[in-house]
């Protein structure tokens, strides 16, 4: 197996943290996104969305989208406590929070960053006003996490899950937008310190 990635990218980090949590090591090949390597015909032949990460199995089958890759490893290498949940309720709650954090948090943060910074203006239209609006939407979402974490140890309950992985990546990435977890978000602050200390996240 091989994973095509750009190590520091949020989507690649999600897979790396997940694999570290379940103790799986996979060969990596770096892809130069800034240079447009992911736009080449060669790369698009293995990646349906032209993005990283992409998992290539030994038989040549490829899987793109970071959560889909994590789901593959969750099923192929089961652990006692799945990061996607074990019981029907756990699975539903983790899926719910994973979707909320991704769609209202991480995706919005990336929209804000790309539009404000213009980092990929050579290949997409960047609208600064939309970036600023997206940044504010992210700020408005953080109290939702704060309220949830006033009731639970982790984002989706009492166990660390894929929802926490997505959330910690969000919290690390939003520093690029000068959004920080301060004393106004004490429960989010407590959680962030807790999960940031995990070996999988620190690495």
From TrEMBL:
TM regions (residue ranges): none
MF term (GO), any: transferase activity
Stored InterPro entries: Glutathione-S-Trfase_C-like (IPR010987), Glutathione-S-Trfase_C_sf (IPR036282), Glutathione_S-Trfase (IPR040079), Glutathione_S-Trfase_N (IPR004045), GST_C (IPR004046), Gtt2-like_C (IPR034346), Gtt2-like_N (IPR034345), Thioredoxin-like_sf (IPR036249)
Highest taxon above the source species: Bacteria
One Pfam family it belongs to: GST_N_2
Keywords from the UniProt entry: Transferase
Keyword Transferase assigned: yes
SUPFAM superfamilies, alphabetized: GST C-terminal domain-like, Thioredoxin-like
Annotated ranges, domain GST N-terminal: 1-81
GST C-terminal domain sequence ranges: 87-203
Transferase as UniProt keyword: yes
Protein name listed in UniProt: Glutathione S-transferase
Organism: Photobacterium proteolyticum
């Amino acid at each position: 197996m091989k994973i095509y990635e750009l190590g520091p990218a949020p989507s690649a980090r999600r897979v790396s943290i997940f694999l570290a949590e379940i103790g799986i090591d996979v060969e990596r090949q770096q892809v130069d996104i800034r240079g447009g390597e992911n736009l080449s015909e060669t790369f698009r032949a293995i990646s349906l969305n032209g993005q990283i990460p992409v998992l290539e199995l030994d038989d040549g089958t490829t899987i793109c989208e970071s959560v889909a890759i994590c789901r593959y490893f969750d099923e192929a290498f089961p652990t006692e406590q799945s990061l996607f949940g074990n019981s029907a309720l756990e699975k539903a709650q983790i899926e719910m929070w994973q979707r909320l954090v991704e769609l209202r948090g991480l995706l919005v943060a990336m929209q804000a960053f790309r539009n404000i910074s213009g980092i990929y203006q050579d290949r997409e239209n960047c609208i600064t006003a939309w970036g600023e609006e997206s940044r504010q939407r992210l700020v408005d979402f953080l109290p939702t996490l704060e309220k949830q974490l006033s009731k639970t140890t982790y984002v989706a309950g009492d166990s660390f899950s894929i929802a926490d992985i997505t959330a910690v990546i969000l919290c690390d990435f939003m520093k690029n937008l000068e959004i920080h977890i301060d004393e106004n978000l004490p429960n989010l602050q407590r959680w962030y310190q807790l999960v940031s200390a995990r070996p999988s996240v620190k690495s």
